[in-house]
TrEMBL record:
InterPro entries: IolE/XylAMocC-like, Xyl_isomerase-like_sf, Xyl_isomerase-like_TIM-brl. GO terms for molecular function: isomerase activity. Gene3D superfamilies: Divalent-metal-dependent TIM barrel enzymes. It holds the Pfam family AP_endonuc_2. This is Sugar phosphate isomerase/epimerase.
């Protein structure tokens, strides 16, 4: 398992009032964290120039990029958008590959971004998603790319369970469309307090189809309405012991990335927390003896 984190985005990595990618990568390296992930720039006009700058910063700091993730979701809303959507993804796959990153993790999303919508459960949404994936696979094959799209499950989206993700990957049947594991996105009030077996079942369901994993903690929301809130690893009730044991059964170079933290101190604390759990479970970490 290759343990890494997101890049810091707090005031410690700002320069002249703006986020500075060089300083962000440098601070991560100073914390002895040498594997990271980040998102593409939002504006298409900055995809290539921003990626060159990112690559240069990573090389200078000795940090590797495990995931270079699209800044939009996979799900088009109309059939007429499928090809354009897919071609933008393939363009990002090519750019990521040029800077040495082969994994692009992306959520399926839906008609309300990452939020719930009744159309997310309809067959038409499944078919739009499939068509987009077919086009991605076809175009990536034409360009003989090595990078791949890793689809992330989100409970409120079109792909909300490991079973649905396994079905989609099986139907597409392409090395360019594989799975990403972030089982925390699938938990709800029915299993939040007892999810160890659900984690094991998810890994079994997606056996051989997982390209990377994300790490975050969860707590039930303080409300009489069912809701779940995200926390820094170590501040919630997520079963990291079981989760890391399952990740350790994947190929040894599989990235496991701590996400959604902005402060450098939080990133360092979360990283050490996950490392300590891995050590207690005698789980080998890539690059550590």
């Amino acid at each position: 398992m290759r343990l890494g984190t997101c890049l810091p985005h707090d005031e410690s990595v700002y320069k002249n009032g703006e986020f500075n990618i060089e300083k962000s990568v440098e601070e991560l390296a100073r914390a002895n964290i040498t594997l990271t992930m980040t998102n593409f720039p939002i504006e298409e006009s900055e995809w290539e120039s921003g990626s060159v700058r990112l690559s240069r910063a990573l090389h200078q700091a000795g940090v590797s990029l495990a995931e270079y993730n699209p800044s939009f979701t996979l799900q088009p809303l109309e059939r007429s958008q499928c090809r354009l959507h897919a071609e933008k993804l393939v363009k990002k796959m090519a750019i990521a590959e040029q800077i040495g990153c082969l994994n692009l993790a992306i959520c399926t999303g839906g008609y309300n971004g990452y939020g719930p919508h009744p159309r997310n459960r309809r067959h038409e949404s499944w078919e739009l998603l499939k068509e987009t994936c077919y086009i991605v696979s076809e175009e990536a094959s034409k360009r003989q790319l090595r990078s791949r799209i890793l689809i992330e499950m989100v409970y409120t989206s079109v792909i909300r369970t490991p079973e649905e993700l396994a079905k989609l990957i099986g139907e597409i049947d392409s090395p360019y469309i594989q799975g990403h594991m972030d089982i925390a996105n699938c938990l709800n009030f029915d299993n939040i307090y007892d999810h160890s077996e659900y984690i094991r079942k998810a890994f079994n369901t997606l056996d051989g189809r997982i390209g990377s994993a994300h790490i975050k903690d969860l707590v039930p929301g303080e409300s009489y309405l069912p809701c779940i809130e995200q926390r820094k690893p170590g501040e919630g009730i997520f079963d990291f012991g079981t989760y890391l044991e399952c990740i350790s059964q994947l190929p040894a170079d599989t990235p496991a990335m701590i996400e959604h933290l902005e402060k450098l101190d939080d990133i360092k604390q979360a990283y050490e927390h996950i490392r300590s759990i891995a050590r207690s479970k005698k789980i080998p970490l890539w690059g550590e003896s």
